[in-house]
Amino acid sequence: MFHVKHIAPHILLINPWITDFSAYNFWIKPLGLLRITSLLRENGFRVTLIDCLDFSIKRRKYEDGKFLKTKIDKPHPLKSVPRNYSQYGIPEEMLLKRFSMLEEKPDIIGITSGMTYWYPGVFKLIEITKKLFKNVPIILGGIYAALCYEHAKKHSGVDIVFNGKEELEALKLISDLTNFELRTPNSLPAGASAQAGD
Fold it and tell me: What SS3 class is residue 176?
């Protein structure tokens, strides 16, 4: 019989930057990540959520506004496009500061992904987290991970690419990885649609 961990694992969830020619904050929220955050907390996990898009300048009356942006090099397939390419969201220094404020090292890091062509921002975030949190398993989920699963497995550098469609599957996966007993196991699906990245 396997040992069940009684000290609640610490899960760090991160919504990455947007990398594109333009982006505007029309109330962009990582709904899937927020649902997973809620499920994890309901089941006793300790969760820290960092949203790299939670930073706008010149916020307007209804809380929309322009993202802060940092000009970056264009990916090779986009080199011929005669427009500036940028990273949108919080500055990298602010992300590092938020990491430094964590009271303890996470047991698992979960990173979501948006549009498939925003993957450069996802990859940069993965690279940073791998350097700072050595030997902490990283799970990549979201739209890019689901639609470009093989590309993510080959190029992202994460430990697990999650291509499931249900937040409950992600909860089951994290529970299995941490050996942490869930409070609501009867509401979970039979298995999780995830495979380790090679």
Answer: helix
